[in-house]
């Protein structure tokens, strides 16, 4: 594995771990704060909704920040959308 691929792999995993930590803490706080007012089903659904939304938001922001220079031409400073692989 080359150094660049190893660095990309570690940055990707760091983003996942940071997103997971933020989502876990948010979900725990929301679940504890509404536990006395709602049924367990509503509590679970709201906690899950908060968990997923926080994870995707944090991970998306960090992933974009780490990879935005990859798709910009260094000479013209313009975005090259041809480098993006759409699945």
Residues in β-strands, percent? under 5%
> How far apart, in Å, are the first and last alpha carbons?
24 Å
Counted beta strands: 0
**Which structural class should the secondary elements be placed in?**
mainly alpha
Our Rg estimate from Cα atoms comes to 18 Å
Oligomer class: single chain
Residue share in helix:
55-70%
Point out poorly predicted stretches: none
Largest sheet: none
Topology as H/E string? HH
Number of separate helices: 2
Arithmetic mean of pLDDT: 84
Shape: elongated
Number of domains: 1
Write the layout of secondary structure elements.
Elements: H1 3-34, H2 40-67
Helix pairs in contact: 1-2
Please supply descriptive tags for the structure shown above.
87 residues, mainly alpha, 0% strand
Kindly describe this structure.
The two termini are 24 Å apart. The mean pLDDT is 84. This protein is elongated. The protein has one domain (3-83). It is mainly alpha-helical and 87 residues long. The protein has two helices and no strands.
């Amino acid at each position: 594995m080359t150094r660049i691929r190893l660095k990309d792999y570690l940055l990707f995993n760091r983003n996942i771990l940071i997103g997971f930590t933020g989502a876990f803490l948010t979900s725990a706080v929301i679940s504890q704060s509404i536990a006395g007012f709602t049924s367990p089903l509503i509590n679970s659904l709201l906690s899950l909704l908060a968990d997923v939304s926080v994870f995707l938001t944090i991970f998306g922001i960090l992933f974009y920040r780490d990879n935005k220079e990859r798709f910009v031409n260094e000479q013209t400073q313009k975005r090259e959308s041809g480098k993006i692989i759409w699945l």
